[in-house]
Design goal:
The protein is mainly alpha-helical and 281 residues long. The longest helix is centred in the C-terminal third of the chain and has 36 residues.
Length: 281
């Protein structure tokens, strides 16, 4: 357990070295977050307006077909936004890991060139999301438990889909299959990339707010407390952007390693081999 955490921390530091050379990679998760908020507002606003005029529509106990169409449309648009900017991030990171010097324009150019495949993948993800939501709604706590397990397995299986789409000219279904196959070959159950990065940043969020809460108690209410809250929000947003960028870089590095493609000096091939040797069978 401790060895895995140590390897994860080492990989995070290496990924941070890549991000330090290309800080513009943070643009992609930042714009993605803003676009995601606009999508939520565009769907939630009309829903609130409709609910205010038709409260009985939400008191029937069972969702109507129109509601599920609305949910699917939301999932589709939201996933489209997320995958588009993630593709731009991964595309730019792939240029760096291939020995190049990417720009923001390079990332967007790659994402636009993959727009049809991004749409196809968004349709698949939205369908899976809708099915999981239906299971949760109709099967009670058992449904939530089952949906959670399926959702976790889906997340694991599709971790490398975007790097596959960026590097290869194949469709989204084949990309999902290849992502699952690469995970089986190289990671097994040791999904350090997601668990390690998530654990480290999760700890960072907790420590950040513990420190700020301690300072807030010491200072008491007043302008200083509001300043601390503002600092905490900005720091949390900043950490989230860095986490997203690091996971994108990590995914590209792992895909290139797993598929036998060369990796620039920013990543140590021996380090990657050591980190994932225990996941091979």
């Amino acid at each position: 357990m401790f060895e895995r955490l140590a390897r994860s921390w080492t990989l995070i530091k290496v990924s941070a070295g890549v991000l330090a050379k290309d800080k513009e990679l943070l643009v992609f998760p930042a714009v993605s977050a803003l676009a995601g908020l606009l999508v939520v507002a565009s769907f939630l606003g009309p829903l609130i307006w409709y609910a205010a005029g038709n409260p009985e529509a939400f008191d029937r106990g069972e969702a109507s077909p129109l509601w599920w169409v609305w949910v699917f449309a939301f999932y589709l648009v939201q996933y489209m936004v997320i995958f588009f900017f993630n593709t731009a991030l991964v595309g730019a990171a792939a240029i760096r890991l291939g020995g190049g010097d990417p720009t923001v324009a390079d990332g967007f150019r790659i994402a636009w060139s993959k727009l049809d495949k991004i749409l196809g993948y968004a349709l698949i993800a939205a369908t899976v999301g809708l099915i999981l939501q239906m299971i949760q709604e109709r099967a009670g706590w058992i449904g939530k438990w089952v949906a959670g397990l399926i959702g976790a397995a889906w997340t694991v299986a599709t971790f490398l889909v975007v790097p596959v789409l960026v590097h290869r000219d194949i469709g989204p279904i084949d990309a999902v299959k290849e992502s699952a196959q690469l995970l089986k070959q190289t990671w097994g159950e040791n999904l350090i990339g997601q668990g390690g990065v998530g654990a480290v940043f999760g700890l960072g969020y907790v420590l950040l707010w513990m420190v700020l809460m301690g300072l807030g108690i010491a200072l008491g209410n007043g302008p200083a407390f509001l300043v601390l809250v503002g600092v905490g929000v900005l720091a949390t947003v900043g950490l989230a952007l860095i986490q997203t960028a690091l996971q994108g870089i990590y995914a590209v590095a792992l895909y290139r390693y797993a598929s036998g493609q060369p990796i620039s000096g920013d990543f140590d091939g021996a380090l990657l081999h050591s980190a994932f040797a225990h996941g091979k069978r």
